[in-house]
Amino acid sequence: MEEILVKEGYLEGATKLDAILARVAAPGSYFATDHIVDEECLKQLDIAKEKAPLHAPVIASEIEQLRKVFKETLIIAISDSAFHNDRSEVAKSYAIDTELARKFDIQRWGYHGLSVGSIVRFMKKENILPEKMIVCHIGSGASVTAVENGKSVDTTMGYSPLEGLMMATRAGSIDVAAALAIKRELGLKSDGELEKYLNKKCGLLGVSGKSDDMREVIKGCNEGDPRAKLARELYVLTLRRAIGQMAASMAGVDAFVFTATIGERSDEIRRLVSESLSYLGFNLDKETNVNGIDGRMTNVAQENSKPIFVIKTDESDEMIMRAFDLLNKK
């Protein structure tokens, strides 16, 4: 890491840094809030390595390296789940033994909270925050979140970022029996190998057999590739299902938001998803949609429609604001 930081010029004037912020996406009550990195935080990251063997070790390694390079600089771990803390116990729970769930801290933590939080903060600033809205974050990772009065009501990601929608390389929600069948048929030796397979070899990549990049999948569709077509259609279907779920969780919806790489840049995916939203009062303006986002935000809906916003997410700014909030409490 130090070599990369030197090469990119980030170490120049490093002694002047007030703080370094690290995004943390890990399960557990501890990581559902923000923390100044200390020995307790490092201890909790070690514990998280067992719960999230793919993501937590990477986060822990990055923070440890930052501590070595920036010995005198404050490092703050910013939770990617904290935005979802306002959800009801029902929305957070799995249908498993309640005592077991509490003992082992198993619940639907939710992720992409920094992205959704940045959207809410921006809309509040612009005085356009609706009572009920659905935020569709679709990038390499993807989730749909129901937001009521600026607070999370429901979201598609669960204990880990694997749950929910089909993503670039993640399977999303899958029957446990089907996952165990994959482990058995492929001769995978451990649960960790299965988790890695579901996170790295599935989604757009697995279904299309060619790429985890939506642009390449769409190109394959245009060239008549049946697997690319299946990948695109399945991707859109999982989004439509999730949107219906989130609308039901709030008993209605007043506005819709597309954000993240695919949400902001792919007019085709926005069109395909929006085609099924007329029953909720959303109708896409095709010309405005093709023209894409102008500045930070564009409304791509028809005049007689509820708004369909395309908004650029700003997770970095949200992390900064959250860090200020944490430090002001100290």
Task: Write a brief structural summary.
This protein is an alpha/beta fold. 46% of the residues lie in helices and 14% in strands. The protein has a six-stranded mixed β-sheet, with helices on both faces.
CATH top level assignment of the largest domain: Alpha Beta
Q: How many E-type strands?
A: 9
The shape is globular
What summary fits the major beta sheet?
Answer: 6 strands, mixed
- Which whole number gives the mean pLDDT? 95
Structural class: alpha/beta
* Helical residues, percent: 40-55%
Assign the CATH superfamily of the largest domain. Answer: ATPase, nucleotide binding domain
Provide the gyration radius in Å: 20 Å
Can you name the CATH architecture of the largest domain? 2-Layer Sandwich
The helix-strand sequence is HEEHHEHHHEEEHHHHHEHHHEEH
Binned strand content: 5-15%
Unreliable segments (pLDDT under 50, ≥5 consecutive)? Answer: none
Terminal-residue CA separation: 30 Å
Number of helices: 15
CATH third-level topology of the largest domain: Nucleotidyltransferase, domain 5
Number of domains: 2
Sheet with the most strands: spatial strand order: 6-5-4-7-9-8
Fold and architecture overview:
- The chain is an alpha/beta fold and 330 residues long.
- The chain has two domains: 2-111 and 316-329, ATPase, nucleotide binding domain (Nucleotidyltransferase, domain 5, 2-Layer Sandwich), CATH 3.30.420.40; 128-315, ATPase, nucleotide binding domain (Nucleotidyltransferase, domain 5).
- 46% of the residues lie in helices and 14% in strands.
- The protein has 15 helices and nine strands.
- The strands form two sheets. It has a six-stranded mixed β-sheet with strand order 6-5-4-7-9-8, sandwiched between helices. Strands 1-3-2 form a three-stranded mixed β-sheet, sandwiched between helices.
- α6 (113-125) crosses α15 (315-329) and α7 packs across α8 (191-200).
- It is globular.
- The two termini are 30 Å apart.
- The model has no long low-confidence stretch (mean pLDDT 95).
